[in-house]
């Protein structure tokens, strides 16, 4: 992103000034310069290798510095890495400044907390389990500072509302940083032991292996995402009048899932379910999807097979989990009048009831060749009218609450169709495209 808002530049500059203030006492602090130099070089090498290979950050050496050095010296450790690591996006100078100031503040805070709680003496004396208490507090301080800074940059650079900018940041980062903190504590204890820094470096070997495993997992997820994108693009090409519909249904499904308090893994599964809910249209003849005018009963029966086609297409993709059930049952109705199996009530999988509401909502709020988009309020009112017969009232209410609080601002990467042909009849049911 080359055009960075002025307020984001000001925010980064303010963070950089705070980091510089943390460094000011350095000349007056008793610092083991050889240890500072070694840790700085080690962190720069690890950060360069990890960013280049895994595209992420590496905190064990940084946290070891927080456990071994005074706070101003620890804050100096991440600075050379920020200057040496390549920057892929512009503006490079601003990004380097952010990469330097952000970890400097975090490690300064961690070192300050660790020192205040007497952690340095515990590390020198290898005093377990007492050493875990100040180390844990330091890791928590490290995470909190990163959370505050990251939420701020989201609010100022990405214009994320303040009430959402910090949501989930701490919970997602605490576990992995805690593991890094434990490795950093092991490094610090070995560093202060008779075996010295060489023994401390051995801690990095299992961490490197764990990062390699982590990178393999993310490569697999990237392959999954590519598979999903290819399937959705194929549907968009075949049935162009609903282009972008799949992505919006995925986003609406996420709104409902989060409002219901589902965990992050289930929210991700619901996103997949929404995106892929119409993938079975690939098995429907194109002439029916693009037919002008009303469908015959036989043609409608053929189109109503698309949930089963979709389920067959994705049944072997294990990572989709319960999303496969949503693909199969998203046209079922609460009163049992839906298809393909006429399930009713709680017999319809929960994920399918979520996607059904998201699907109908987007159908009503999107412009179609046979009508203009309805306002969000009108669509929600229609969903509420049909709650209890066609839709699960719990899912409808969850969507309504989320929309009242956040609004509806879907982000869709698919291009809009250039033009539409003559109107076509929609399928029976409230706002549901065929």
Automatic annotation (TrEMBL):
The chain crosses the membrane at residues 9-27, 33-50, 62-84, 131-157, 169-191, 197-215. SUPFAM superfamilies: HD-domain/PDEase-like (SSF109604). PROSITE patterns: HD, HD_GYP. It comes from the Bacteria. The keyword Membrane applies. Residues 409-434 are annotated as: Disordered. Keywords: Membrane, Transmembrane, Transmembrane helix. This is HD domain-containing protein. It comes from Streptomyces broussonetiae.
């Amino acid at each position: 992103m080359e055009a960075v808002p002025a307020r984001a530049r000001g925010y980064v500059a303010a963070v950089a000034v705070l980091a510089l203030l943390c460094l000011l006492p350095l000349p007056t602090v008793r610092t083991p310069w050889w240890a500072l130099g070694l840790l700085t070089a080690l962190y720069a090498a690890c950060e360069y290798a990890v960013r280049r290979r895994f595209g992420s950050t590496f905190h064990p050496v940084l946290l070891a510095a927080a456990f071994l050095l005074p706070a101003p010296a620890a804050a100096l450790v991440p600075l050379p890495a920020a200057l040496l690591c390549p920057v892929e996006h512009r503006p490079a100078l601003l990004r380097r400044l952010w990469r330097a100031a952000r970890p400097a503040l975090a490690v300064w805070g961690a070192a300050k907390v660790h020192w205040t709680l007497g952690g340095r003496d515990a590390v020198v004396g290898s005093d377990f389990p007492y050493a875990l208490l100040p180390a844990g507090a330091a890791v928590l301080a490290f995470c909190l500072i990163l959370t505050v800074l990251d939420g701020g940059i989201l609010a100022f650079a990405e214009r994320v509302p303040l009430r959402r900018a910090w949501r989930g940041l701490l919970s997602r980062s605490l576990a992995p940083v805690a593991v890094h903190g434990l490795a950093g504590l092991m490094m610090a204890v070995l560093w202060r032991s008779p075996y010295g820094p060489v023994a401390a470096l051995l801690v990095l070997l299992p961490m490197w292996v764990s990062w390699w495993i982590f990178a393999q997992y993310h490569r697999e997820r990237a392959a999954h995402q590519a598979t999903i994108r290819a399937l959705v693009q194929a549907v968009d090409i075949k049935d162009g009048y609903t282009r972008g519909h799949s992505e919006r249904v995925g986003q609406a499904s996420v709104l409902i899932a989060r409002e219901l308090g589902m965990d992050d893994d289930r929210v991700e599964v619901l996103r997949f379910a929404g995106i892929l809910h119409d993938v079975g249209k690939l098995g429907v003849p194109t002439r029916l999807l693009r037919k002008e005018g009303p469908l015959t009963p036989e043609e409608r029966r053929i189109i109503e097979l698309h949930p089963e086609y979709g389920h067959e297409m994705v049944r072997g993709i294990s990572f989709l989990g319960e999303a496969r059930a949503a693909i199969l049952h998203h046209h079922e109705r609460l009163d049992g009048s839906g298809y393909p199996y006429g399930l009713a009530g709680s017999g319809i999988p929960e994920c399918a009831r979520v996607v059904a509401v998201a699907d109908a909502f987007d159908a009503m709020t999107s412009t179609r060749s046979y009508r203009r988009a309805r306002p969000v309020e009108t669509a929600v009112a229609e969903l509420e009218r049909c709650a209890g017969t066609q839709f699960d009232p719990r899912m409808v209410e969850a969507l309504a609450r989320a929309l009242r609080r956040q609004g509806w601002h879907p982000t869709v990467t698919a291009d809009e169709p250039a033009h539409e042909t003559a109107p076509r009849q929609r399928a029976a049911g409230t706002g549901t495209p065929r």
